[in-house]
Amino acid sequence: MPSDDMDAFKKTLQSSKRVICLAGAGLSAASGIPTFRGDGGMWRKYDAMSLATPSAFRSNPSRVWQFYHYRREKALTAQPNAAHYALAMFSIPHFRNSVMSSPDTTFSLVTQNVDELSRKALREIHSKYKEQIGNPSQPEPPPRELLEIHGSLFKLSCTECKHVEKNYNSPICPSLKGTEDVYEKASSKPEPDIPIDELPQCKACGALGRPGVVWFGEAAPSVILMNIIARESDFCLVVGTSSKVYPAAGVAEKVKAAGGKVAVFNIDRSEGDEDADFLFLGPCEETLPIALGLGLPESQ
Fold first, then answer.
1. Domain named Deacetylase sirtuin-type: which ranges (predicted)?
2. Catalytic pick among 69, 84, 126, 150
């Protein structure tokens, strides 16, 4: 039976040498990002999960691009919540060392989310506390520190030449403007049918572009690195995910197999909880800052 003893958790965390966090949709829920699982799984009249596939894009790129445009618009206006900020601060040695026993402890954040809110929170922390921590050694955290295993809504990948580029435009192309206002669920309004040549195009070759995310049935390029980090870790934090989707679901298993500990932070019980060493139920934006002992002042 997993423990909900916060003091015991903190002692275990403080003595850990290599910490990994696996984050899921629950991390961003308080920021207004739809999870599209369970009761919230419908977009317009479609099962959202059925649109996150290569076959769906091949058969109807207009519909899939409208779905991802809707998600991009949500993410563009969303702000990180307290859980994002707590993890961002724990990512930075200056703050992490203030709550850890060893200054050599490493931390890796593996996120299944494609909203870039973890990245945004890290940038904001660096900007807010730059006098204390100095400028980061590089403009973006290296993959071992922030691994977005399912890609990003703000990457555009070419279907032909495979060129990948960042794009934060709103909208990503003129034809998608306003399609996010069409009713999300069943509606009498006709579905817009956007011609392929009016959908997002690759700047390198002009071919049809696709969202730079990993769809169901596709291999995540960063899985090998994720598994290496997991096998090296002695403490795993599972935040806002039911850990049902592999390969990410195997992270906690690898840590346990190597003799490490696992702590779960989730809104509800889920499969695998019984194998965890610690379980903290409730909104992770409330439980995680307490557990890590880090967070922005309440006025922020």
1. 1-300
2. 150
